[in-house]
Amino acid sequence: MGTAEIIDGKAFAAGLRERIGAAVGGLKAKYGTVPGLAVVLVGEDPASQVYVRNKGKQTLESGMASFEHKLDASTSEETLLKLIADLNADPAVDGILVQLPLPDHIDSQKVLDAIDPEKDVDGFHVVNAGRLATGGDALVPCTPLGCLLLLRDRLGSLSGKHAVVVGRSNIVGKPMAALLLRESCTVTVTHSRTADLPGECRRADILVAAVGRPEMVKGDWIKPGATVIDVGINRVDAPEKGDGKTKLVGDVDFASASDVAGAITPVPGGVGPMTIACLLRNTVEAACRRRGWEMPEL
Ligand SMILES: Nc1nc2c(c(=O)[nH]1)N[C@@H](CN(C=O)c1ccc(C(=O)N[C@@H](CCC(=O)O)C(=O)O)cc1)CN2
């Protein structure tokens, strides 16, 4: 299907995890201890349970210490903030991640901003968002960082390219735009109120779709030869697979887009696996900064 090169995020993430494992081994040999990552899950959302399980598993596989905290859905904001304070003070913990979404009775940004910015391996703290926006030394959100690594791997320098980001969330759209600007791209951020969204997308050498709408970006929105990064992970009905069956699709209509794009990430197997690999990378970086260790080449 299609002529575009398929960008294999699953394989790239596996390679990155391998390099992280080797780097962690080196840190252990040199400094006698390993980085530690604490992951906090509130409630029983099935997808979040899978992501948290995978984060713990991949942390251990890379040789780092993993601390899992699973709290009941009815946990109060106060109890969660107390746990964050304890993790901030724990010298064995280099990275803290609170799995999103949180239950409605909890103010997510208040919780994220309670994390010590130096342990904020999700890069969601307002201090890290500010550092990224102003060219400082930020811990960078994992999904946009994963997109950037895939883009650099395919294109080398991104300087001077016109990048269009569809979506303006704090978790993906805004940090993605800031990262692309840092790479000297010309960046357009589009959203639900953008006039002529297909026309804006057609101007993109690099198109990043992070809007959360299944298969919204069509092939005729894409400039021939463009590199398309699909951040969407949407579960939809798949009657062709049988009654009640579902499948994952991205924000890009892969069938039509892969006939026009030069390269494209698939869903699943594109950006998704990069998210956890970049979390492990950020944990190594947070540990090195906090403990005054030399950051290994990754
Ligand atoms: N605190 C955070 N919460 C959430 C984040 C985040 O970065 N930090 N991102 C998402 C969920 N997420 C990690 O937490 C995540 C999503 C998807 C994948 C992934 O590997 N997806 C696979 C498909 C998985 C499937 O079959 O369901 C793929 O795309 O190939 C990893 C991590 C929201 N919450």
TrEMBL record:
Residues 141-290 form the Tetrahydrofolate dehydrogenase/cyclohydrolase NAD(P)-binding domain. Its EC number is 1.5.1.5, 3.5.4.9. Homodimer. Pathway: One-carbon metabolism; tetrahydrofolate interconversion. Residues 7-122 form the Tetrahydrofolate dehydrogenase/cyclohydrolase catalytic domain. InterPro entries: Aminoacid_DH-like_N_sf, NAD(P)-bd_dom_sf, THF_DH/CycHdrlase, THF_DH/CycHdrlase_cat_dom, THF_DH/CycHdrlase_CS, THF_DH/CycHdrlase_NAD-bd_dom. Belongs to the tetrahydrofolate dehydrogenase/cyclohydrolase family. It comes from Nisaea acidiphila. GO terms for cellular component: cytosol. GO terms for biological process: L-histidine biosynthetic process; methionine biosynthetic process; purine nucleotide biosynthetic process; tetrahydrofolate interconversion. Catalyzes the oxidation of 5,10-methylenetetrahydrofolate to 5,10-methenyltetrahydrofolate and then the hydrolysis of 5,10-methenyltetrahydrofolate to 10-formyltetrahydrofolate. It catalyses: (6R)-5,10-methenyltetrahydrofolate + H2O = (6R)-10-formyltetrahydrofolate + H(+); (6R)-5,10-methylene-5,6,7,8-tetrahydrofolate + NADP(+) = (6R)-5,10-methenyltetrahydrofolate + NADPH. NADP(+) binds at G167, R168, S169, I233. GO terms for molecular function: methenyltetrahydrofolate cyclohydrolase activity; methylenetetrahydrofolate dehydrogenase (NADP+) activity. Keywords: Amino-acid biosynthesis, Histidine biosynthesis, Hydrolase, Methionine biosynthesis, Multifunctional enzyme, NADP, One-carbon metabolism, Oxidoreductase, Purine biosynthesis. This is Bifunctional protein FolD.
